[in-house]
Amino acid sequence: MDVTTILILLLVGAIATYFSGDKLASKVALVFSLGAFGLSLSLLSTYCNGGNISFIANWIDIPKVALAFKADGLAMAMVLLTTALTPLIIFSSFGNSFNNSKNFYALVMFMSFAMTGTFLAADGLLYYVFWELALIPIYFIALIWGNGDAEKRKKAVLKFFIYTLGGSLFMLIAFAYLYSKADSFLLEDLYKLDLTASEQCWVFFAFFLAYAIKIPIIPFHTWQAKVYQKAPTVGTMLLSGIMLKMGLYSVIRWQLPIAPDAAKTYMPVLIGLSIAGVIYGSIVALRQKDLKKLLAYSSLAHVGLIAAGCYTLTLDGLSGAVLQMIAHGFVIVGLFFAAEIIFRRYETRKIDEMGGIRTQTPKFTSMFMILVLASVALPGTFNFVGEFTVLYSLSQVNVWFAILGGTTIILGAYYMLKMFQNSMLGETNAKVFAEVTSNEAITFVVIIAFLLFFGLYPKPIVDLITPSLNEILSNINS
Amino acid sequence: MDTNLALLLLLSPFVGFLFNIFFGKKVSRNVSGAIGTLTVLVSFLMSICFFAQLNQNGKALEIHLFDWISVHNFKLDFGLLLDQLSLLWLLFVTGIGSLIHLYSISYMHDDENMHKFFAYLNLFVFFMITLVVGDNLLVMFIGWEGVGLCSYLLIGFWHKNQDYNDAAKKAFIMNRIGDLGFLIGIFLLGSQFNTLNFSELKVALGGNLSLYTNICLCFAALCLFIGACGKSAQLPLYTWLPDAMAGPTPVSALIHAATMVTAGIFMVTRMNFLFDLTPEVQNIIAIVGALTALVAASIGLLQNDIKKVLAYSTVSQLGLMFLALGCGAYNVAVFHVITHAFFKACLFLGSGSVIHGLHGEQDMRKMGGLRKAMPITFWTMMISTLAIAGIFPFAGFWSKDEILMVAFEHNTILYVVASIASIMTAFYMFRLMYLTFFNDFRGTEEQKHHLHESPSLITIPLVILAILALIGGAINLPGSNWLNHFLEPILATKHEEHALGTHEYMLMGIALAGAVFGILWAYSKYIKQGFVPKQDSEITGFSKTIYNLYYVDEFYTFLIVRPLNSLSNFFRTTLETALGKLVFGFGTVANGLGTQGKKLQTGSIGLYLFAFVIGVLAILTYLFIAQ
Predict the structure, then answer these.
(1) I need a surface site. Which of B6, B97, B423, B456 has the fewest CB within 10 A?
(2) What is the predicted ipTM?
(3) Residues of chain A contacting B179 with CB distance shorter than 8 Å
(4) How many structural domains comprise chain A?
(5) What are phi and psi of A10, to 5 degrees?
(6) What's the whole-model pTM score?
(7) Cβ of residue A312 closer than 8 Å to a chain B Cβ
(8) What is the residue range of A473's domain?
(9) Which of A356, A389, A428 sits opposite B69 (nearest CB)?
(10) DSSP assignment letter at B237
(11) A445 lies in a domain?
(12) How close B572 comes to chain A (CA, Å)?
């Protein structure tokens, strides 16, 4: 068995969902996505026992493109993130009803398929295909099932589509150039390439444009907040929980090892830019009035720190970044779900129109609170482990990076607690707020359990990713 | 065996937390309170066991539980360290904790969310134990942030009131400013020594250090001290503590007086081997401590809210402790921490008893004459007030006197500042007593009718704490110096012993005379002249500045909060739109080029031919020149 089975299962799941009809669609999607999760777990255990779960076969002869899927610890961590979050996201949407739900859930499954492919692909062109493929379903999900004024939504979503597509084209050009040099798209062959400094620089920044827009790193983030706000919550979760990690993962997998010298040269600039994003995102979040937009900017701040960790080119930085990617994936899905729960009851995303919810719904309040605390990286949550490791790595590069990046500790607490206070606390709201249903609670409990468990015992994940990261680092430093 | 007992010590309050959070609503309030109290009591008993064991064999216990985080060059495990310092802290944290839990059963009985109150209180004790017993800086940091969280939850316990929520948020954020300092300190130490474990650090710092390392150490010590400033409410991060009085009174007693706020002193004492190497930072600590003591005491002179007076008194006393730390007298600071925990917990609980008796009234201008109606509350508070004022032979006399002595040896100015703060303390504490318990009752008839002593669950803890405030000084009487000897193993530099000479007796005499002066001053003003503080609107001049806390909050708002908010608004509206437009700009340019390009496609063959000829000519010219 190898990792292609996960991809096949997800793709089959997408098709099956489409043909299952509107009534059954969500359940079929859930079953298949859970199956994919189970399958990834069993493949993980094979991998951990020393088995080979990678796959390679010829696909196209001219140009030489291979169906290469490399499943090392790092890729498996990201695959698991995807296959774990997908059923969770699907399940969380059981409280919503969508028109044409078969199309909707089929697109969700298809997106999960494309993202998993992106994490696994070890051939440049194959990777590029998956990378772009992931954009299509989210475009339709946001466009068709989104909320707010249709015209404005169309504008925001189109901007996102063209912007990210445009960025990715530079990556395609870089791949074409690399192919002309290596006569192969295979990851290993590209790692072996000996590029001159200026070639590396061009390739590096071509990749950077694609990733900086996807992650996003300021000032390439302008698509983000509006799309997060307009997309249906499932779409926002897919985007923030998994899709933006594609960019971060690609930095580690493709950008840094292919152009290591450029990475070393521009390290301080890139770390600086990423940290500027941390501060900028946090400050913008301070005065946000829309809950989903606030979370979008908090996300901007968090991924800025993750990106900074990646660009330190140290093991701590990379492993902290990966840990934080996983932690952030879970917590942001939980937070967007909390926003969705409020929306289901109050039909608003404006924070001023909330307030006084706590007295009516103690369970929801506690769970929301824990997620807020995880998001501000309270020790004991998984987010702390990631944030601590990243900040530690930054302090090794230059202690000022750690101090500036560390302002997220203060500013993050400020905007998150302010949001929590204004949305949840205060005099009892006149409007009735029903306590979370058990279905809704399950999603929260799973996320919280995950964050708390790995917050105290992150070792399994660290042990899983460290060998792959060391391999990548040896490629960077050789 | 030891591991299991230590785990019991650590986890027992956590079990109480889980019980109360999940089942507290279903059981009766008494059961929920009893379980909350008993789980803390178990920790207290375990602490006594370990304490007895330590006294017998003198060996500190290190327990490795599991690997937690690993960074490149070192591993951080989750381990416990039970030595002299942590056990001392454990004893009074869990001991006073048990008493305050007991007190809360009665105090919070009418609150519908009593189970939550106990849950948070238990969680607090759990995190406080974690803070104290962690064997490395990062485990300490879990506790450090954890107690901050519980403080947040408990200050905002009555969450319908947004002012209380603001106070809670403020406490959390100001603490986090300090926490960033703490983290940076951790990074600096970690990168220098590849460990954060206390015993390993102690060994590493004992070796030969390069100049660069020494500079790093200085910064690390300074950063850690910033952390301590946040948690222990020192200048300039002290303003959250008075606001924190929004929480229920038992919380103020436990968290914001006796235990959590002493975490900064604990940490500095724990890292004494580091601070001993950085005399510059020690000087800063001493100065910050003395200034805090003075500023807070001066604000305390004019406050009318009974809890606010106690809050500023706490800040001021913490300042004195930091002064002692800055002078390198860790044992003296620890001594004062312990005696302060006794009398300040008693004072807060006493004020809670008064507030309880007056159905929520906290303004001393509306109290008075409560002595007769509440004799136990009065006498216990009186003993504690004498202790905090530094009257012989109460506990505070001994510990404060030692602080003044080390300050005198260190620097005369610091000594004078600390002495002035002490005189002020005596004054405002007796002002508090006189306004609350003497003269006639100034409240409503309705209240007067219902005046009564609090129930025994409230008075028993008061009595126990008052006894401790009376005799607590015994743990470190000059001559026996039990505490000093006990703490010796954890201090890197030996603190020389004082034989009592004329010099010392003179200082003691001066301190005592100062305290008596402060008391008489208060007596003449509030008893003899029967003075009652004016209404808020009538306060003028410099008193107004002090009454309004020197406008520090307003200053911070002006300097930090408002600019940050304006910046946020600017980024959110202007800059975001501009950046968005810029991206659209590319689209517009492409669009424009397309529109222009479209015009070239006229369909006229003549024009195409013309362009073709021009193009060929251009290429030919280029080739010609290139050759």
Answers:
(1) B456
(2) 0.90
(3) 409
(4) 1
(5) -65, -40
(6) 0.91
(7) no
(8) 266-478
(9) A389
(10) S
(11) yes
(12) 5
